[in-house]
Amino acid sequence: MNVSCDTLSGCPGRYCGRLSNGDGMCQSLCRACPLGHQITTLNDICTPCNQDADLRDYMFFVFMVLLTLSGHLVILAVEAIKGLKTRLSIIITACSCIMECIIAAILTLLLFEPYGDVVIKSCGAKQVSDFYPIFYNPIPDFVHELNCVSEVVHPLYSFVFVFLGFSLLFLVLFRGVASYLMRWCFRKKLINRASIFYSLIWIPFVVLFHAIFAGLIYFSFDYLSLIAGTIVFAIISVVAQKETEESSYHHDEVKFKFAFKLWKNPLYLSFGVMCTLFTMTGILSLTDEIDSNTLRLQLLPVAITPFVTFPLLSTFANPDHYLTAWGSRPRGYNGPLS
Known about the structure:
By secondary structure, the chain is mostly helical. It is 56% helix and 5% strand. It is built from 11 helices and 6 strands.
């Protein structure tokens, strides 16, 4: 039944609305808003989301892409540590992981309105509960529940699932074809099937993680990006330094040798780039409220701070200097104390 929108009162619940015919007439029945609509009026009328997605929405999507890619690289690193992969296999698999995520991300953005454009429309998210409308269905008569479940934050919830679906498809396609071609060209198995199997498990895990914690992630991913980028880079730097422990600890002229090792090893290089991208994502999302693009560009160099500070400060973290000062012998040193 259609009545004048001005004569209607608000709908029960937080996410129930009415559909408008566009001529000042609305349906009297309260229900869930259609996909791509949100409640913006006092009469709880569902209106289309015509605003372009803001920077934070894009950075949230980039964060989920980087999270997915990071899982693939961690699996690749574990396989490399076990000695199950050659250098060529690592490079091929790492390139495949990157291409899978990039192509999946681009196709995902092109599939949302406006179709064929990476600039998408977004309803935005104002609070964590916007991601979980299923928990806010009203019960007007205290007996029957009024179903008002819809994607209130469209497409912030759904485009991650679409991306992960494409990632799963391209994982099977790219790595399956790459594994076959490498075995046909080099007459040996270069891509270990275990890494493909673990990656097939990783993507459903990310799907479950996003389905449950999407709201919490959206309002905290900027801080998580900064923390993750710094900690992961510290870990890979320590690992790289440990591999050059003798030279970096006992020869000051090569104390930066491990820093060059970060760029020589394809896994270390990939993780270093990932840490930088995570940090940039956090910085850009935190500066979403700033209107000055110049200030954003001035803050981006902060993302490379770990690359500069860790080599400079690593010498002070050498325990051998303090052991010598306290009268103890450094590790592996049997000579006289200076």
